[in-house]
Amino acid sequence: MSASADRPPAVILAGGRSSRMGSDKAAVLLGGRRLLSHIIERVAPQAAGLGVNSNIIARLDFAPGIAVFADTVPGHAGPMAGVLSAMRHAAACFPAASHVVTVPTDTPFIPRNLVARLQGAITEPVQIAVAYSAGVMHPVFALWPISLADELEHWLLTDEKRRVRSFIESHGMTAVDFPVIDTAEGSIDPFFNINTPADLETAERWLPLIEDMER
After folding, report:
1. Given CB 3.0 to 4.6 Å as the disulfide criterion, which of 6, 27, 74, 183 pairs with 209?
2. pLDDT at res. 13
3. What is the mean pLDDT of the chain?
């Protein structure tokens, strides 16, 4: 897969329990819009198609025209269960696709060139391309070979710790570094994620700064 290949499908991972936020993060308002809407607006133009992995399907009726599907492995098995569901969804709905991109639902400043950068970094068919910023891995911002689905399912069912980094590092991977966003109020990590009400307040302050830069 190269930068000139067709764009892959993408899946937004919204299957977490949002326990620290106290409510469903996908529906939290940021700048007067639901958080999931911010992610859709940034990711949809980058992908061949878009889906949402959520175990609370009834609460996502504000994403019309976008497929919403639950984990294929029961029991809230963590973010890699969402990645597996993304692979299964892509295989069923985009049979020509070799890879699928995943992003979480709580990161409103996703780079608008995320997919192209991940796609361009792949040099081998079974590589996983993973986003980094400031030397930190962001493991669910990744481009995954769909051919790993069966292996991933076995890992989910047999590995007691289910550490995302462990699965990634046991395969061929390539790191894709993204710069921080420099603003008048300092640097912002493009993969800043909203886990708590305090994080949401921070994102509210940063949102207009980033929107001004992107105009």
Report:
1. 183
2. 94
3. 88
pLDDT digits (tens, 9 = 90+) for 101-114: 999 999 999 999 99
Residue 142 has pLDDT above 50, yes or no: yes
State the Cα–Cα distance between residues 57 and 43, nearest whole angstrom: 20
Tokens representing 116? 């192209």
Q: Number of structural domains, the chain?
A: 1
Give the side-chain half-sphere CA count within 13 A for 149. Answer: 18
pLDDT at 162: 85
Contact predicate 200/30, CB 8 Å: yes
- Measured distance CA(167)–CA(144) in Å, rounded: 12
Structural domain contains residue 1: no
In a domain, 203, yes or no: yes
Cβ atoms of residues 194 and 21 within 8 Å: yes
Burial 153-182 (b: 16+ CB within 10 A, else e): bebbeeeeebebeebbeeeebeebebeebe
Query: Mind giving me the DSSP string for 170-184?
Result: TS-EEEEE---EEET
Whole-prediction pTM value?
A: 0.90
Please indicate, yes or no, if residue 20 is contained in any of the structural domains.
yes
Q: Contact 30/108 with Cβ under 8 angstroms?
A: yes
